[in-house]
Amino acid sequence: MKDTLRFKLNGKPVSLKVDPSRTLLWVLRYDLKFTGPKYGCGEALCGACTVILDRQAVRSCSIEMKDVAGKEVTTIEGLEKNGKLHPLQEAFVEHDALQCGYCTPGMIMNAYSLLLNNPRPSRTQIIEEMDGNLCRCGAHMRIVAAIEAAAEQMGGRER
Amino acid sequence: MKTIDEKPRTLEEENLELDFSDITMDPGPAFPLDRREFLKLVGGGIVVFCTVTRLPAFQRGEGRRRRGMGHELPHDFNAFLRIGEDGQVTGYTGKIEMGQGIDTSLAQELADELDVQLNSVHMVMGDTALCPWDRGTFGSMTTRFFGPPFRAAAAEAKAVLVELASEKLNVPKERLRTKNGTVYEMGGSKKVSYGELTKGKKIMRHVKGAEIETPAEFTIIGKPVLRRDSVAKVTGRAHFSGDVKEPGMLCARILRPPAHGAKLVSVDTSGAHAIDGVQVVHEGNFVAVLHPEPETAAEALGKVKAKFDEPKPYADDKTIFEHLLKVAPAGEVVAKGGNLAEGQKAADYVVDETYLNSYVAHSPMEPHTAMAKMEAGKLTLWASTQTPFPLQDAAASLLGMSPSDVRVITPFVGGGFGGKSAIRQALEAARLAKLTGKPVQVAWTRAEEFFYDTFRPAAVVKINAGVTKAGLMTFWDYGVYYAGARGSEQFYDIPNHRTMAYGSGWRAAPGAHPFATGPWRAPGNNTNTHARESQIDMLASKAGVDPIEFRLKNLKDERMRRVLQAAAKKFGWKPAKSPSGRGYGVACGTDVGAVVAHIAEVAVDKSTGHIQVKRVVCAQEMGLCVNPEGARIQMEGCITMGLGYALTEEVKFTGGDIHDHNFDTYTIPHFSWLPKIETVILDANDKPAQGGGEPAVICMGAVIANAVYDATSVRMLQLPMTPERVKEALSRA
After folding, report:
1. B638 to chain A: which residues are within 8 Å by CB?
2. Residue in chain A nearest B639 by alpha carbon
3. ipTM confidence score
């Protein structure tokens, strides 16, 4: 049965008539036509669908819409500000920290959450926090370097 | 026809459309289209087609019926490009971008030959209506085989521009030079841009090869360039097949058997029918449920009750090796020389070993996905595929259509590694679009991806080889079962040798593998290199010679010697007989024309059997390296991906029942596995380009196995080297 759910999406209030048992990933992709969050495994095992829910990285493939109500969702589409890439996005570009790019939005959102909660992570902390995000092309070392560079560039400030 | 390419496009390009619908053609050897008609269509500018006959036969378009939307397309060329009236350059290729970076490196090749800025080159890729025919993106063939005609077309285009400039400026050609999209007079002030030259012009050339630049003339080729597709990919704007949505589109879920070979006995779809809005398709054994929302389609599939008859399994992941040896066909000689019996007599030490490796999944992060739309009798297929043109033919044949009524568009592909040469998902989407009359998306779940993946075949390698006390190899008797010959030809200098291949790689006869197998990044070579380089290491150890010194002692191949020495230098190798306790391993090999040498350092936890790879150095010589930055990423990717098949990846199964459904049981490399990776690319820009996307993956099994031996004195003869196998080997020692 459909309910009207209200939440914030990339900074804007959204009101959506939707079955509350539906999956956040599919609502984002099929109802709202977002292309950033990706399906990779459907069981929170790969991180390709990662978005931010109230400042924490979550796997949107395993979140029901009823758990989104009243909260704030940020997707990769919400990172650019005034047409300018987020420092993490810039660092991924500058480090060539991707190949096929399918895992990239999830990688960046997971790293975004990491920096929100720990603006100056050590390399070990980066690796620990990113360990649940899978990349098959093997861009890992560049992804770690990009996150380090973005953290450095942000200098502990939130963005 | 709407394209979903997110890359920046010029207006002209949008208008170009190139559906060739007005074209009639003469299939003769000269340029086959009516020039005026064609130029009207492309909107002016300069169009150059190039044919190179030195391509491998299967990669040539000539002699093949090329079909576009409704009409014949030119089929006698391999590459084509266009310079528009705004000076923008568009390169067309049937190759696809799946992460390997050719969107960048091919543009570099065009920009360099044409003397234009890299950012004024755009690539149109993998669209069967716009691009020259191509067999597929695999085998590291883009730079090797597509690059040369592409560059020749660009060189010819530049020659045309210089001719035009000569007329316009009234300056002899010899006095003209090109730079940054401009033709200028040497030592004079006259100049004209490519855009001005092409304005109002409708020029078409068809060349059979042209003078291309020499390495000394390169300005962009050979320079490291960042990927051009990354902004689209870091913003989520890059479109993959699953991102293509059409109004009225249905998500399909298809009834799958519990095991390969299982037969559908009965099916009851009434539960699915009962769900509001669900459409059920049932045609023979093909049962699908469709709904606009993927959750509802999944729910409906859950309501389908089906009974299957499962065949009795003839092998599982443990017994498969015995089975393969039993059913192996007669061997074929790959290479042979000298006299094995004499070699055996001359040997002081003989090592006779058997190596095993399991089935491995491709596991791209993007599962196979496709969207199909049928409109006015024409089918458009957006698919994650490495083979858009073969898919065009297969879809046409499946639906009883003419290939000219099928257009395949390949958006960005989310990883392939050989697995997306299999096109089942796209054919399923095509079939459902025809049956329902609606746009249909087939996006495989991870479980479907594991079930229908064409695994790298399990394989066995047997090697009997001997060495003298002085460390010279005397004989080499090698047999590979089911991995294929690629990478089995040994390149050491061994006087008496024989290499046999039993079963030709992944295309095995029915009854060998319980499910589909296919090419997996550097097919065959991972298996063969693991076996060969482990065996070499054992012989070195028997002779008491340092493993690098041993290889050099038995190697005449200059390229291989060079990469070994380069890797040793980068690593800071200090010679020692193995096992030295340091945990250092060496391996080298050759694939797709390139040579590689790896050195690794590992630490082995003897209580858990866990192997941590701490450092990998890789030196590679690949002839002309168009984009050293892109080549490095490929090498790093190969090394990281190779950790998986070396350490954890193996498909568990009982007959056709695949036990792995997701990444919880099938473990691919994680961040925490990451060694320090260092890459060296040896300069060989004066040599033809070789492959770059596969070679660095081939040594990963052997280099780690050899390092484990160096650390623990225990040989790991079976891949993957799981903690259980390491512990077991340690307990046996």
Report:
1. 138
2. A138
3. 0.98
